[in-house]
Specification:
Layout (H helix, E strand, L loop, with lengths): L1 E3 L10 E2 L1 H4 L9 H7 L4 E3 L3 H15 L6 E5 L2 E4 L11 H16 L5 E3 L3 H8 L7 E3 L22 H9 L5 H5 L3 H8 L1 H10 L10
Parallel strand pairs: 1-3, 6-7
Antiparallel strand pairs: 1-2, 4-5
Helix pairs in contact: 3-4, 8-9
Length: about 210
């Protein structure tokens, strides 16, 4: 188990390997708590300069596949490859080459989610980590999401999950059956987002 965040008792966890997560360790957890849960773990200091270097290199590689890219964070980006698919001989070839170039040039793996919109693509990218690839076709929506927990929707935290559970809603399918007016009454503007997300809808563009 590897935990990044510091070698002393102070600070918080920045990242944890999948082996470390089995001990309940997660980002933002105090280092002392991570040490208590996993004393045999390997604790490493943060190296922000190295992460920024890798992020910049990764963005350069991604830009080879489309000019439409939106870096969402240091380790995440949205790509619109609609206009690039034929240039690479189809979606499968594009994705295989993207993964291969990241691995060969940076020595790391990536997990990719492919979907008709940003929201579902982000959700799909979490389904098969590490080194995953999940594709959601337009005709599979919204039913493909219905068995998932509402906590799998980006932006749905513990408080919203508890409030939905009080309404008898635990899965996205159950959420999708609620009228948008009811969700707006309970959650305000966030209720409209929950309704759209439950139906796999998102019209946020990926800019040039």
């Amino acid at each position: 188990p590897v935990i990044v965040g510091g070698t002393s008792q102070r600070g918080v966890v920045s990242a944890a390997s999948y082996e470390a997560r089995k001990f309940g360790i997660h980002s933002a957890m105090p280092i002392w708590e991570a040490r208590r849960r996993c004393p045999q773990g390997i604790f490493l200091p943060v190296n922000g300069r190295l992460y920024s270097q890798y992020a910049a290199q990764a963005r350069e590689i991604l830009s080879r596949f489309t000019p439409r890219m939106d870096p969402a964070s240091i380790d995440e980006a949205y790509l619109d490859v609609t206009g690039s698919i034929n240039l690479f001989g189809g979606l499968s070839n594009l994705l295989a080459r993207l993964k291969r170039e990241i691995c060969e040039e940076l020595g790391i793996t990536v997990s990719i989610g492919v979907a008709p919109n940003r929201l579902v693509a982000k959700m799909a990218s979490d389904w098969d980590k590490p080194d995953g690839l999940s594709i959601v076709r337009p005709e599979e929506l919204p039913e493909r999401l219905f068995e998932l927990s509402v906590r799998d929707i980006p932006g749905v935290g513990a408080v919203t999950c508890r409030r939905l559970a009080q309404m008898g809603v635990c899965t996205i399918g159950q959420l999708a059956r609620l009228p948008v007016e009811l969700l707006e009454r309970h959650f305000g503007r966030h209720g409209a987002y929950l309704h759209r997300a439950a139906h796999g809808q998102d019209d946020t563009p990926v800019p040039y």
